[in-house]
Structure formats: structure tokens, C-alpha cells
Sequence to fold (571 residues):
Amino acid sequence: MADELSKHFLELTHIESFYGKIQALQGVNLYVDKGEIVTLIGSNGAGKSTTLKSISGQVTPKTGSILFDGKDITKNPTHVNAHLGIAQVPEGRRIFPRLSVRENLQIGAFAERSKSIIAERMERVFGYFPRLKERLEQKGGTMSGGEQQMLAIGRALMMKPKLLMLDEPSMGLAPIIVEQIFDIIKEMNKEGMTILLVEQNAFQALQLADRGYVIQTGNIVLEGPCSELLTNQQVREAYLA
Amino acid sequence: MLQQIIQTLPQVLVDGLTLGFIYAVVAIGYTMVYGILELINFAHGDIFMTGSFVGAGMLFFLLSIGFMSSVPSLILFIIIILVAAIVTGVLGVGIERVAYRPLRRKNAPKLIALITSIGISFILEDAVRFIAELKTGNYILTAPPMFQHRFVLNVHSVFPFFNNATFQSSFLVVSIVTIIMLISLDIFVNRTKWGMAMRAVAQDRETASLMSINVNRVISVTFFIGSALGGATGVLFLIQYGTIDPYIGFILGIKAFTAAVLGGIGNIRGAMFGGILLGVLEMFAAANLSIITNNAMDSGYKDVFAFIILILVLIFKPEGLFGKAAVEKV
Fold:
């Protein structure tokens, strides 16, 4: 049934999510098509992270539905969604501090049994982030913020996801590092990765993505191609000023 | 005085290691569960006790069907320790499922889980007591002797300032089995995929689930391993000390927990080291307190001595000897 309903790769219909009694999402509608980069921008506390967490299953929506790749995943636990191919690079990177870089990468491929496939994926990650290869035995917690962000993205790639969701990858990083990371996101997308990017750094996110959504106090207030959003008066005043 | 103390050192070491190995394995059960759930599972000492009763029950059963006469006691021992480990492992998983998981799902405060574990502890004590009394008429059991062959460790002839130490073959069994358990656990945690998942869940449960790790399953595995090790150690206690009752898990559990804190709670190698250290210190105190205090205190005060050491260590190193989790735990 779900197959007929969803025209899109990922589709959220009227999602309402709560933290205890506090309502964080008030009926979010959003979709992502295969091969797109879609960005979700908004200010602090607007519901960006909650939207990602609702998709990955870290927050279970109270109402609404989430369809992914033809399946209803609304009430799935997180590990099941990860297994289906949804990778989330969490806000603040959340590297396992006392696992080595190698282990942090290996754990990304937890669901994969074949050692040769894991080794192959690791090589791919090193292709994007050569610096990780030099630090394999170092503990994750001892790396710099930029390196940790690379590791967090690398760890997500180890899952060989169908959808990569990034939660504020630019947070706390020097502009030059942010640029590097955005370049790599672009590159991954060119190689076919579908990406949902959450950012406070609206200008850069809108330049990178195909389409964008603007979220405000749990509601999507604007959506459209990024070229339009970049010239939209409201967006310019609120986020690009 | 010093000479007296030195003379008894070999015996102190033998007795202290026996006790310390037992503390070490039980301490691991506390530290593993704490590492993953930040829960002090007070029922763990009683899992240990249950293991010793399951072992005793198996032993009496196998003897009653005439099993012992035809089989060497080593085989018998391996059978009962495996059965006890599996039974207590399953029991631990069951307790987690029935008592702790529902609390976790509802995000209950940690204090509630702690109180629950104390409740489980009483339930286990009374259940074991009830069954033991029903079957034997007495809740204090004395196991038929096993591995009682005595050896003399002839250190005196090599180092004249030492006295000889004696030990039973059960000491060898306890040492070998605990060392096997400690090493296999260390390999499991540090070298296998599931061990890595366990460490990841301990460090960041939310993020671990993003890596397709079924966190509840990892928690079950943790409870199985910790409880099975604890139950197996109960059997070791049985063959080493002979007599058991349903309350042996309480004080031993407290001490094993102390050992875990001494080594740095959440740190598995720390728990191993803390357990062995505590066992040796306790036996040292038992042998020498009356000498040191000029008969003001006898060996009955050995526990005070052990806890004073703990308090001293924690004053100067609150995170325990090997602990470092406090800062990094986000």
C-alpha cells in the first residue's frame, strides 16, 4: 500500500512530535527525492533537529506518517531505520570518545558482516577524508572538531546509506573547514547520495542544496528551489542578514 | 612485628588471591551494568548466590543418581559450573526484561531502578531460601567436599624469612577458572564486534542506535555475560568455602561493588584489579590486624580495614584507580 502512496523517496506528512508535553513539530510536511540535496534551515529551537530525529526514529512522532523507500517507517525504532539505509550525522558529531578512529568507522558498518566489504567502504571513506587514515589508532575523543566531523560523516558512510542526514555539520568549525566539508557533501551527492542537510548557516546551505525548507516554531513556513529562497525577501531578512 | 608479618605473607597472598579472584569476577558484573546503564544492580550479589545454590543443587542431584562414582570430579565440576552459568545468565536477562527495561522505556529516574534492584535482591534471597528449605529442610547447605587435596608451597627453603603456605586443590581450580573468565571477557570486550558494540552503547546509547545497533539486545547480552560470570563464581565459592546460605550474596556483593568502585566504576580491567587488590588487602588485615594493633583489634575487623583503604583511595582519586569516565561521559 505504501508503495502506491509515496511518490517520493522520503516523505513526511503532517508530522507532530513532542518532547514530553512540549510540542516541537506542529505538522511538518516535507519530501526528498532520490539524488537531491535538500536543506532545512531555521533558527535555534525551530525544530530542525527534531525533524531529523523523527525521521531516524530517535523521536517517535505522535501523528502523521513518514514513508521511506516505499515503506512506512513512522514508528520504527532507530536501529531498524538505520538498517533500512537512513544515516544521521548527529548534532555535535557524537563521536564515541573512547573508541579508536578505526573502531568508530567499523561500528558504522555494524550491520555488515563481510570483512572485505567493510574494508572496501573504509577505503572509500579515506578517499573523501585522507586525514582519517593517518589517525586510525587515535581515540576519537582526542581529535579536533573538524576531524571529528569528518569522522562522523565517515562513520555514517560506512553504513552505505541510501539517505544521509546531516545535523549542523558546520557547527563550531572554522570557515575553511566548513568549506571543505561542504565540498565533500557536494561530491558525495554527485556520486549519487541523497542528502538532507540541516543548517543554521543558511546562506551556505542554500547555495549547496537543490531545494530548501524554512522551519519556524515547528512549522514549515516556506519551501522551494534554493535559487528562489536565496532571493526571497523574508529569508534574506531573517536568515541571511 | 615486621618479621611476623613478613612470615605470613605467602599464606596471605594465597588466601587473598582466592578471595580476590572471586571479588574480581563479581565486580565485573557490577561494572558492566553500571557502564552501560549507570545502574548499580544490587541484585547482582544475589545472582552470585543463586549460582552457588544452582551449583549445589546440581551437585546433589548428580550424586543422587550415582553420577559421581563413575566420573572424575573435574568433569562433574565443569558440568555444574556451566549449568549454573547458563541458569544465572538467563535469570539476569529475565530480571532486566521484567524489572529494568519497563523503567527505562518510561524514562524513570535512576533512583527508581536502584530501589527496584534492591527489591529484586530480597526476592532472590527469599526465593532461594524457600526452595532450599523445601528441598532439604535447611537453607544452609554444605556441599560434599571436592578438590580438597592439600598442597604445601615450600617457600621457606628458598626464602627463609617466609613461612610455608598451604592451599587446597580448589585454590588452583578457582584461580584457573577465574583467570580464564577474566581473559576471555577482556578479549570479548576489546576484540569482538559485539564487545565493541557494548563499549559504544556504554559511551553513547543514542548514537549507537544510529549505527543499527539494537541497544536493548546489547543490554541483554551484557546482563547475560555479567550474570553468567557471577553465577559461575558462585560455584567457585561453593567448592572453595563449602558452606553457603541465601545471604552470602549481600556482603560479598557489597565488597565486589566496592572493588568495582576502587578500580573505577564502569572500567572492566579496573574491576578485575580492584577485586584482586581488595581480596589481598582483606586477607592481609585478617592475618595481621591483631599484630599491628597489639591485640586491640582482631581479624573480625578486616572489613573495616578494607573500607578504610577504599575511602582513602576515593578521597585522593574519586574516580577510582583506573577511572576516567566522569569527564568524558556526556
Summary: Chain B touches chain A at residues 193, 196-197, 199-200, 203-204, 206-215, 328, 330 (CB under 8 Å). The CA atoms of residues 287 and 309 of chain B lie 16 Å apart. Confidence is low (pLDDT under 50) at residues 325-330 of chain B. Residues 2-37 of chain B form the longest helix (36 residues).
